[in-house]
């Protein structure tokens, strides 16, 4: 029995960074925050924001600092969670760089301001990036894809969809979050029944918002629950959506 060949290589020092995929719903579409790089490598290319972890901070602290620098919003006001670590050799031409990516979600976030390494910062429709219209530097397209799938999955099993809504909100506004993130329309009556029956998902305020047309809409706030029981499954809702007349959200 022969031993498997061992992979040999030099032990190189590694740099640790954090990158942030920041999603928000603007103009009735899912947007991601991108920066235009102001220096090499990939000068002038679009990228997700991020930066080096300082020697006196944790990963979460570094992510919160980068988030604040790029959006001028405190991380305490958003849903922020660690997504995944990326450390493939060659992902950064400057050397061995391991990045820890974070997912951030917030309601209708303001126009961003460019950080120290960026020429500009933009809210870009996720559709345009997924279609290849906007090319991203490094392996940021892969990170974005992973973040989008994480967001879509979390909408099924958790109450994180409310992080996209400014309080108070209507059931229709919450439904639109699901539609733009999942990429297909949902039956309004079926959706209302599910979310109002889910324990502590949303809580009625007892107030209503006067609409330009139709009846006043009931207003809700986020409930205390973190997980949905029962879950809202994409496969079931996608099948039901095939019978609706609303146009699908393009992906």
UniProtKB/TrEMBL annotation:
The record's annotation in Gene3D superfamilies points to: Nucleoside Triphosphate Pyrophosphohydrolase, Winged helix-like DNA-binding domain superfamily/Winged helix DNA-binding domain
Q: Which residues form the Nudix hydrolase domain?
A: 13-148
Species: Salinactinospora qingdaonensis
Q: What is the lineage of its organism?
A: Bacteria, Bacillati, Actinomycetota, Actinomycetes, Streptosporangiales
Q: What is this protein called?
A: NUDIX domain-containing protein
In terms of PROSITE patterns, this protein maps to:
NUDIX (PS51462)
* A Pfam family matched in the record: NUDIX
């Amino acid at each position: 029995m022969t031993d498997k060949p061992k992979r040999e290589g030099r032990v190189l020092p590694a740099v640790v960074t954090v990158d942030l995929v920041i999603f928000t719903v603007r103009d009735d579409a899912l947007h991601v925050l991108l920066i235009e790089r102001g220096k090499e490598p990939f000068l002038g290319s679009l990228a997700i924001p991020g930066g080096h972890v300082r020697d006196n901070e944790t990963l979460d602290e570094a992510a919160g600092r980068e988030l604040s620098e790029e959006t001028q919003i405190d991380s305490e006001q958003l849903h922020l969670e660690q997504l995944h670590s990326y450390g493939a050799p060659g992902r950064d031409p400057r050397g061995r760089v391991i990045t820890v990516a974070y997912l951030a979600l917030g309601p209708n976030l303001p126009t961003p301001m460019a950080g120290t390494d960026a020429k500009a910062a933009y809210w870009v429709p996720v559709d345009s990036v997924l279609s290849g219209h906007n090319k991203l530097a490094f392996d940021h397209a892969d990170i974005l894809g992973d973040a989008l799938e994480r967001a879509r999955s979390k909408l099924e099993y958790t109450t994180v969809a409310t992080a996209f809504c400014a309080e108070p909100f209507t059931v229709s506004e919450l439904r639109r979050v699901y539609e733009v993130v999942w990429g297909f329309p949902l039956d309004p009556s079926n959706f209302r029944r599910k979310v109002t029956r889910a324990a502590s998902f949303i809580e009625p305020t007892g107030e209503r918002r006067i609409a330009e047309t139709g009846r006043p809409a009931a207003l809700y706030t986020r409930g205390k629950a973190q997980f949905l029981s029962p879950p809202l499954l994409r496969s079931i809702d996608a099948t039901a959506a095939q019978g609706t007349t609303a146009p699908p959200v393009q992906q």
